[in-house]
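Intended use. Records like the one below are meant for learning the mapping from a protein sequence to its folded structure. Do not use them to infer anything beyond what is encoded.
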Amino acid sequence: MMNLITSPMTGFSPGYLIIEWLCIHQKKIHTFEMILKMFGRVFSLILKQVKLDPHSRGIADVNTLFKERVRESSTLKSVVLLERNPDNPVFRDLNVDEALNFNVEKDFCNPHQLVRDERKFNLRKKFFLDLFSRVNVHVLNTIEKPAESLSRIIELGKR
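Structure written out for the chain above:
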């Protein structure tokens, strides 16, 4: 089992889930409304109570969403990084160095970093090196239909 790795990216408590769905497909950005459509039957009443910011993002207590199915810890087995590049394959595996390089080249997949200095860069790099050395890392190219991408992720979860 993996020790808990504290993310230098967020200041959120482990008991909360950040609901920020950015599925970019056919130049559309689907956010909270897409989550309601996809998971509406299961979480609709709870998700409708979440207060949203102007970008349709909100924070929901996972204990409310999942009730008795919440665990104090879990084991992370895989990380799926997203890209959109028609020249690359739809799905590929990365080794630790490739994953770290991908993440550094893509600005740690987070263009909204508030602090950008050498110290924070090194903290982020150390965090992802530690993470990627403990899990399987894959890249999902979002050039196919969202349903096909979702099927790939679901199949990955069955391995």
